[in-house]
């Protein structure tokens, strides 16, 4: 993963100068292999395509933000993915998944930037060591038979290079002590 420095406006009334990490495209997890069956290529990834490197949105601080740029005509597909993610996390009994869901809120900016809509994922508090960009993997844990179809419908919803991760460290709480 290459790190690069950007200045990113955050549409919450403030402009932050931040270091961002580029997060690559998501790939669905391979389908479960039945016992006694020979290994086969996963149906969701054709053999002709090499698997992209795993994306990382593991946060080092206590608060994290993901800025996700979605193509304007793909917002319904992206929001269906988010709805399935919410359902999956609610049904998943793993404590780390419950911790992820507890602090994860997703906002949609009404200020479209041309043909792009920005979704702001605010994670407060962060579940330590959890990768928040592995959407298909998280859904797969609860709904393994639905992931391939969901991936096919949503894989092109985000803008290439349109996911940025921000680690935030509290400087001060203006309304608190």
Order of helices and strands: EEEHHEEHHE
User: Strand pairing plus helix content: what structural class?
Assistant: alpha+beta
**How large is the share of residues in beta strands?**
25-35%
What's the CATH topology name of one domain? Alpha-Beta Plaits
What composes the largest sheet? 6 strands, antiparallel
List low-confidence stretches: 1-54
Q: What is the gyration radius calculated from CA atoms?
A: 17 Å
Q: Supply the number of helical segments.
A: 4
Helix content: 10-25%
Average residue pLDDT: 76
Count of DSSP E strands?
Answer: 6
| CATH uppermost class of one domain | Alpha Beta
Strand order of the main beta sheet, please? 1-2-6-3-5-4
Q: Report, as a whole number of angstroms, the end-to-end distance.
A: 38 Å
Tell me the overall shape: globular
Write the layout of secondary structure elements.
Blueprint: E1 3-10, E2 14-22, E3 63-71, H1 75-91, H2 95-102, E4 104-108, E5 116-123, H3 135-142, H4 147-154, E6 158-168
Antiparallel strand pairs: 1-2, 2-6, 3-5, 3-6, 4-5
How is this structure best summarized?
This protein is an alpha+beta fold and 177 residues long. 23% of the residues lie in helices and 28% in strands. The protein has a domain at 61-162: Alpha-Beta Plaits (2-Layer Sandwich), CATH 3.30.70.
Architecture overview:
The protein is of the alpha+beta class. The protein has a domain of 102 residues: Alpha-Beta Plaits (2-Layer Sandwich). The protein has 4 helices and 6 strands, in the order E-E-E-H-H-E-E-H-H-E. Strands 1-2-6-3-5-4 form a 6-stranded antiparallel sheet. Helix 1 packs across helix 3. It is globular and about 50 Å long. It starts with a strand and ends in a 9-residue tail after the last strand. The N terminus is likely disordered.
């Amino acid at each position: 993963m290459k790190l690069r420095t950007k200045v990113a406006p955050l549409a919450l009334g403030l402009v932050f100068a931040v270091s961002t990490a580029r997060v690559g495209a998501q790939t669905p997890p391979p389908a479960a292999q039945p016992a006694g069956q020979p290994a086969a290529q996963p149906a969701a990834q054709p053999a002709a395509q090499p698997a992209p490197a795993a994306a990382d949105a593991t946060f080092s601080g206590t608060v994290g933000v993901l800025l996700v740029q979605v193509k304007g005509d793909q917002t319904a597909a992206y929001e269906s993915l988010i709805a399935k993610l919410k359902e999956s996390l609610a049904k998943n009994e793993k404590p780390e998944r419950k911790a992820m869901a507890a602090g994860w809120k997703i906002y949609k900016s009404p200020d479209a930037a041309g043909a792009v809509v920005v979704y702001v994922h605010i994670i407060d508090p962060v579940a330590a060591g959890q990768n928040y960009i592995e959407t298909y993997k998280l859904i797969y844990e609860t709904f393994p038979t639905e992931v391939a179809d969901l991936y096919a419908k949503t894989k092109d919803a985000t803008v290439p290079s349109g996911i940025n991760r921000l680690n935030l460290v509290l400087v001060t709480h203006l309304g608190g002590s």
